[in-house]
Amino acid sequence: MKLKPVIFILLMLFVALQHQAQAKVSVYDLRTELLVNPVGIDVSAPRLGWKLSGDERAIEQTAYHILVASSKDKLDQNIGDLWDSGRQNSNNSIHVIYQGKALKSREEVFWKVKVYTNKGESAWSENAIWTMGLLNYKDWAGRWIGFDRYFPSDSEEEGKLSARYFRKEFNTPKKVKKATAYIMGLGLYELYIDGKKVGDQVLAPSPTDYTKNIKYNVLDVTNFLKEGKHAIGVILGNGRFYAMRQAKPYKVKTFGFPKMQVQVMVIYEDGSSETLKTDDSWKGTSNGPITASNEYDGENYDARKEFKGWANVGFDDKKWLNADYVQEPGGDYEAQLNGNMKVMQDIVPVSIVKKAEGKYIIDFGQNFSGWVKMRVSGTSGSKVTLRFAESLQDNGELFTTNLRDAKATDNYILKGEGTEEWEPRFTYHGFRYVEVSGYPGVASKANFTGRLVYDDMQNVGTFVSSNPLLNQIHKNAWWGIASNYKGMPIDCPQRNERQPWLGDRPVSAYGENFLFDNANFYIKWLEDIRLSQKEDGAIPDVAPAFWRYYSDNISWPGTYLFVADMLYQQTGDLRILQKHYPAMKKWMDYMQSRYIDKDGIITKDSYGDWCFPPVTIEAGRGQIADKKYPSALISSSYYYHLLHTMARFSMLTGNGKDQSYFLDQAAKMRTDFNKKFYNKAGFYGTNSLTDNLLAMYFGLVEDANKEKLANRIVEIVEKENKGHLSTGVIGTQWIMRTLTDMGRVDLAYKIATNKTYPSWGYMVENGATTIWELWNGNTAHPKMNSQNHVMMLGDLLVWFYENLAGIKSKENAFQTIVMKPEMITGLDHVNASYNSLYGKIESNWTKNKSALEWRIAVPANAKAQVYLSAKDLSSVTENNKKLKDNKDIKVLSDDGKKVLIEIGSGIYQFKTKL
């Protein structure tokens, strides 16, 4: 049986389990885990992992044996000259840290694993491979080149630069064995060899604060280089490097003009090697067809200015300039381990309507981010203009007021040579509708294709229920999340913002992980946050800090801890906590030393419960939502919760001496919090739903007052809100789980399935295909009114998967799973899955008046604690067999309402008489 190498965190490999007897062997569908390409690993001790599969139940790993070799031949001979782990008695199959010889830059590393289980021993897996990146600064042979100046084709006032084109011819005189390109092209690049683009990445590399760190991409170009002459070409766009708005230096961080450092390492069949590198012998120009590119405003392309064959051998570049040596950006060079952005899906228009003056309005039927690929024929010099918007006015024209001053416009000038096909390179838009003007001839749907662009990551979750509205909300969430993955989690893809606000993602990121394999994406973002921290400990509201917003509050920067906690829970990667613990502690101390008053309360907050809904839809009509209502209750309750988080982190990371420090602070703050904010009438603070939810969820309420507070929360939702929420971005992070933990899952379900304002269903009823920024997004003032946001998802997706489907990790990244779905009146069916690091977990339940049927799949080397709604054991069967007669099932408890059992891996079919 052949198995393909698969990656997780750094490296992962699937292993087929082979029973020593005659057990049938099977393998899961293979997919790439978390890391897109195992080329260019710049970590000295990579983590290895594998998945097991087999038909038998309760498969448990008992030991493993890893071999890591410097060549395929050695590995084929079972020689682990780099590392031979020997047999290690362990059930760990994720994050096994490489402990062999020191690895070198560009080294190819081959490995395989044999697994021992309670069911038998596997054969050696198929070989897997990874390649080391450039581990040292001196490994970069070339120098930075570019043009650190404006050209006549640039527009300094508008923040637009024409693209920079660079080229170089070279020779490979012998047969090439291996060729690897290493590129740092800032802000954005496209790499060509002999006229062909290298790779399918777009908008690469991922954005960072380039004074702190720079991501380089590693690309295998062996198949591009045959023996003989070649040409290499690079196009540079400004991206985030040359900021979109230069006029606000006090707010917007910019880094200079586009520049690059490139080297191609060529190894020949005879063992010799040479390196092509950037220097001042490269030729460059700004006088190309991309006359302007700007993430906010769009791209201008004049096809008449194309250089035919510019990246091919023999092109006449005499009029091009010699490249300048330029100052390096200053940040550390790092291999990009998170996936590049790619065109992940093509979208066909649902309609095209001809308007007056030769204009067309295209409707793609879905709000998304990316761009349009166009086919057009016409005379040279004809200009086609594409304008983008999320919605239409009542008269059928584009509604663009909510874009602020983002022009969101692409312009294409035809060269007039038959059918021309074009799409932009260095911009993207958030849109559903496109206005096309100047199109020669008759435009049809076939001439336009929408291209959905987001970071290359796989879907890992599915959710379908008997409630169509829940299913549509789940779909809208998927589109909103995907649209806002742009090398970092941005707030919105359409207006002149598109910033990685921390406050949008404290719990939303947790829910996102049930849909996408986004661990490396968020690992990268944690590093963005850490590197944005000031020397005194301050963390910004936006990271990377493209906007200079260090407002010092708890709820926005606190996302740093929330996301780290999510990654540890969902992936089991302890090194995340170990790496970031010092910076997190530094920030906690910074806030504590500056903003605790004499009453023990954190007084500093910036945003309050951001964007809470107006009392009625009409009350918010035309009103601007950009209003701040700072809340000491929010900042203090969050700080209390984060103190407990840090206490847990301290024990996990070997900093146990800090635990009492954090717990003592928390105990004092709990007392002070109740003195300050608890009202004897049974509520907290202003008696808002958010204030009360935070006190309940974070455990701030005294036991004697819990019932009274719970009653108050229910009263607000049921009576005052008539079954609706009234929370902004803060309260919405906790509302669904708080109500469920209180025993009022029915109220949570009511909130989730409302179709009237304010609710997710109200958005759907009013045409939303993603998630709005505002609950009243159809009536609010357009100044701050994105129709594609994720911050208002809160904990909804977590609730879908953990509470409705019953898929929740108890320990070690789903090695132990808790399966406890809520059986809600009115919800008859849920079918969900989540592809964990151990394999796919499935929960598929259906109930009627007389019975509950529940199909469960648990991956090998994992187990599940399953809660069955049953009055006694005799009312439950598994595969038509009574539980007491089933050797695969361990009964843990039976309280007369629920039966708690433990099962190992495998597929189970339960049926319970109700």
Automatic annotation (TrEMBL):
Q: Which residues form the signal peptide?
A: 1-23
All copies of domain Alpha-L-rhamnosidase C-terminal, residue ranges:
806-881
Catalysed transformations (reactions): Hydrolysis of terminal non-reducing alpha-L-rhamnose residues in alpha-L-rhamnosides
Q: Which named protein is this?
A: alpha-L-rhamnosidase
Instruction: Tell me the Gene Ontology biological-process terms attached to this UniProt entry.
Output: carbohydrate metabolic process
Which InterPro entries would you find in this protein's record?
A: 6-hairpin_glycosidase_sf, 6hp_glycosidase-like_sf, Alpha_rhamnosid, Bac_rhamnosid6H, Bac_rhamnosid_C, Bac_rhamnosid_N, Ig-like_fold, Rhamnosid_concanavalin
Q: What class of enzyme is it?
A: hydrolase
The EC number on file is: 3.2.1.40
Q: Name one GO molecular function term.
A: alpha-L-rhamnosidase activity
**What top-level branch of life does the organism fall under?**
Bacteria
